[in-house]
Amino acid sequence: MIKNHSFFSKSIVHYSLSILLLVLCFTVIRLFLSNYTNKSNNELNNDKSSISSHNLVEYTYVDDYDPKSLSGLNNSTLIYEYMDYNFNHIYKSLVETPMDKESSYNKSIKLNNTFDLPRFKILDLNDLEKASANKANSIFVSFNGNISTNFIYKNGEYFYYKNKEPFIDLSNNSYLKVSNILIQMCDEEFPNNHTVGKGNALLFQGGKFIEIKWDNEIPPIRFYDKNGNDISLLNGKTWWLITNKNTSIIYN
């Protein structure tokens, strides 16, 4: 009996080629997915924010003119400042790690729920130095003539001055310094961090400032430059002042 060995040989070859093609296809797909994932991760890392609402805890401080009432502000990632409808001087602090009770000297500190924030891209200091912007080493903000907030730019950061005196956080006995200052100008008489609307704003960083816009018609709030591009922040603390028409703002 003569067997058709060539038929079986061809079948085996075809089967082997099919398996090889499948392996190659799976390999190509895995490489593609791996590259895509790495690219996506890199884009996320490059786009990550110096401020993110993820895992942040919000504390509310009411200034009662006692230095202890603001202890713990130095732990902040972001600090809001504004006057409320009772003319209280409010500071809201977002921190990554909840503070110990020993760090809180005042009962006016309350734990609130975290809320969504805009996603700011991180700005490289070298890029900022090349950017065309006006210089501003001193910032003076007066809310009602009696309460003032001042900043002096030194050694790459803005030192916070309260009522013309450098502020020292008693929780760690150190000066309070920030990398970015946002001043949001509102039409509302008593604006806060949830104010809806749009208007003008100022951004100070690296000893320079630019005029920008804010829009919170549809939260989260957005800050953008004259070209419509979202602003970027330097890595570090950010101070966010929310002001009305009666607020005096001077910088030089």
From TrEMBL:
This protein's record includes keyword S-adenosyl-L-methionine: no
TM ranges: 12-33
Segments forming domain DUF3048: 142-239
InterPro entries: DUF3048_C, YerB-like_sf
Superkingdom: Bacteria
UniProt xrefs under Pfam families: DUF3048_C
Keywords: Membrane, Transmembrane, Transmembrane helix
Coiled-coil zones: none
Protein name: DUF3048 domain-containing protein
